[in-house]
Specification:
By secondary structure, the protein is mostly helical. The protein folds into 2 domains: 54 residues, Wheat Germ Agglutinin (Isolectin 2), domain 1 (2-Layer Sandwich), CATH 3.30.60; 91 residues, His-Me finger endonucleases (His-Me finger endonuclease fold). The protein is 51% helix and 8% strand. It has 7 helices and 4 strands, in the order ββαααααββαα. The chain is elongated, with a radius of gyration of 31 Å.
């Protein structure tokens, strides 16, 4: 017997249309899923039901226990995430660069972890500032057109490159401007 008649709507339906129930001999509820959902929606939509659920959720001592458990798990998870980020630093840098590029509509970085690891010197490839002197970690820089990895830049150099939209002509024009308008003492 692969069918059953719903107690509410009286329609004969396949057994898959009934929720399971171990307390019943045939292992299926008496009402079909559709009728059960309608009944639950009606029952839970009353103001009394909402008030009862709210009172149950806010019973004394429960929220404090839940908050403490969440705090402990949050701290453990944060520590695990930090340890993973330290061990997989370059893998995470590539992932972040690819994710940001996709969001901004650029070609994602095509570098491998080995290429990035070999290129890391601990200093900005433009200005030479060591990473320990920077406020943030060095940024993984890549060509937005081709996705080719170019090197690691400090936050300032990376921002300047972004402001000139990776244009060498704009960079030269800015350098010429600074040299022309430089105050002579």
């Amino acid at each position: 017997m692969n069918t059953k008649v719903c107690r509410k709507c009286g329609v004969e339906k396949e057994l898959d249309e009934f929720y399971t129930d171990r307390r019943v001999t045939d292992g299926r509820r008496a009402e079909c899923k559709d009728c059960f959902c309608i009944a639950m929606r009606e029952r839970n939509s009353t103001p009394e039901a909402r008030k009862k659920r709210r009172a149950y959720r806010n019973r004394p001592g429960v929220l404090a226990k839940q908050r403490e458990r969440c705090r402990v798990y949050r701290d453990v998870y944060k520590l695990e995430r930090q340890q993973y980020a330290e061990v997989n630093r370059f893998k995470m840098a590539i992932y972040r660069a690819q994710h940001a590029a996709k969001q901004l509509g650029y070609s994602p970085c095509t570098a491998t972890v080995e290429e990035v690891t070999a290129a890391f010197t601990g200093k900005c490839h433009v200005c030479g500032v060591p990473e320990v002197e920077c406020t943030q970690r060095l940024c993984l820089d890549h060509d937005h057109e081709t996705g080719a990895f170019r090197g690691f830049l400090c936050d300032n150099c990376n921002r300047v490159l972004g402001f000139v939209r990776d244009s060498a002509d704009r960079m030269r024009a800015l350098a010429d401007y600074v040299e022309r308008t430089e105050v002579r003492i």
